[in-house]
């Protein structure tokens, strides 16, 4: 397998949010063919290529094939390499990780065997709404999970991840002429107080962050707005942080007596909890090949949480180290490619059944 050729082809294949799941699966079917050549039985699910080798329980390797970039992005800035740095849409998050996954499997299977499963989904950047059922099914059949999201810029691995909560806050007031504020109830004013109130919770807990990212309100410049809403991106790790947030929202009140405020909250991703025993195994595998591993807690969520929430020993960040994800400056450190592949091969040897 010529991994650089696969890497270039994958990065130059647009798989953004403006494409259907079916189209993204079609465009990445060449990866399913690679897995079949490695001996896997491959199934095409609604939003994922799923490959099996052997029998459960499986060591499951996961990665996503979609990016945040629209159709045509790879034509504007195709895959390129400058010294030890590769660039292109999704080069780090996480097409480089998928290539590491495939290369590590090829090298491992040349000299060893194991019960393995691979899940490559195409809706991770959307929150995995369609592939969720597949992940939950596979997690119930797994002994371990290795996730190939990007390693951090300096090569750090990921031992845990925060969960993600979506919160919508709605304010309702009363229309009136903008020149007579006393005749209306301004919903934007009401929602503004709530933004300040909820933002003040930042710092109450080490892992709880509450960030208002989208605000809507008003229709005409001379009309007091009667409706306004704000979306909050919320990250958390401990259950007590989630409970604190819920209790705060249940006690929410209005500033103006005629205004009303309501909310809708949804857990988009649960946290990936750290498994100290397995992290110790990963650390041991890394040290045996001369690495000095560093583990961090990631602020972003990931599909690995489907496994860790079931108590499946899991590790993330096995993908290509890099930075500036989700931007036009995204890059990957391909000088660390061999080290990452060697780590995965050595780890598979330690945990195979």
Radius of gyration: 23 Å
The CATH fourth-level homologous superfamily of the largest domain: Zn peptidases
**What is the overall shape?**
elongated
Query: Regarding CATH, which class of the largest domain?
Result: Alpha Beta
Into which percentage range does the β-strand content fall? 25-35%
From the helix content, strand content and strand pairing, which structural class follows?
Answer: alpha+beta
Q: How many domain units?
A: 2
DSSP helical segment count: 11
The assigned CATH architecture of the largest domain is: 3-Layer(aba) Sandwich
Order of helices and strands: HHHEEEHEEHEHEEEEHEEEHEHEHEEEH
Task: Give the CATH topology of the largest domain.
Answer: Aminopeptidase
End-to-end separation: 25 Å
What is the mean predicted local confidence, pLDDT? 96
- Per DSSP E runs of 2 or more residues, the count of β-strands stands at 18
> Which regions have little confidence, pLDDT < 50, spanning 5+ residues?
none
Biggest beta-sheet profile: 6 strands, mixed
What percent of residues adopt helix (DSSP H or I)? 25-40%
Trace the largest sheet across and list its strands. 1-2-6-3-7-16
Pfam family, one: M20_dimer
InterPro entries: Bact_exopeptidase_dim_dom (IPR036264), Pept_M20_glutamate_carboxypep (IPR017150), Peptidase_M20 (IPR002933), Peptidase_M20_dimer (IPR011650), Peptidase_M20A (IPR050072)
Protein name: Carboxypeptidase G2
Organism: Thermotoga neapolitana (strain ATCC 49049 / DSM 4359 / NBRC 107923 / NS-E)
């Amino acid at each position: 397998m010529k991994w650089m050729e696969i890497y270039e082809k994958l990065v130059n294949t647009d798989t953004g949010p403006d494409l259907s799941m079916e189209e993204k699966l079609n465009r990445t079917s060449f990866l399913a063919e690679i897995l079949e050549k490695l001996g896997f039985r491959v199934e095409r699910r609604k939003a994922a290529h799923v490959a099996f080798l052997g029998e459960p329980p499986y060591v499951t390797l996961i990665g996503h094939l979609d990016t945040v970039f629209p159709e045509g992005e790879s034509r504007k800035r195709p895959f390129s390499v400058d010294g030890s740095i590769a660039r292109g849409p999704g080069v780090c998050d996480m097409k480089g990780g998928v290539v590491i996954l495939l290369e590590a499997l090829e090298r491992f299977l040349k000299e060893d065997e194991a019960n393995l499963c691979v899940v490559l989904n195409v809706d991770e950047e959307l929150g995995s709404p369609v592939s969720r059922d597949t992940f939950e099914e596979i997690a119930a059949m797994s002994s371990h999970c290795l996730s190939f999201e990007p390693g951090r810029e300096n090569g750090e691995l990921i031992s845990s991840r925060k969960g993600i909560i979506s919160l919508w806050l709605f304010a309702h007031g009363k229309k009136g002429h903008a020149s007579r504020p006393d005749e209306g109830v301004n919903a934007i004013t009401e929602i503004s107080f709530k933004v300040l109130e909820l933002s003040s919770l930042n710092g109450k807990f080490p892992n709880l962050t509450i960030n208002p990212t989208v605000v809507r309100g008003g229709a005409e410049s001379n009309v007091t707005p009667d409706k306004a809403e704000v979306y909050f991106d919320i990250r958390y790790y401990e259950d007590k942080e989630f409970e604190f947030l819920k209790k705060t929202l249940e006690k929410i009140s209005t500033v103006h007596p005629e205004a009303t405020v309501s909310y809708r909250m949804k857990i988009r991703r649960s946290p990936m909890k750290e498994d100290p025993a397995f992290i110790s195994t990963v650390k041991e595998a890394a040290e045996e090949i001369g690495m000095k591993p560093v583990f961090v807690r990631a602020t972003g969520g990931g599909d690995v949480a489907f496994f860790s929430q079931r108590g499946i020993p899991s590790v993330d960040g096995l993908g290509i180290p890099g930075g500036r994800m989700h931007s036009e400056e995204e890059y990957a450190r391909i000088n660390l490619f061999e080290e990452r592949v060697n780590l995965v091969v050595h780890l598979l040897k330690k945990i195979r059944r």
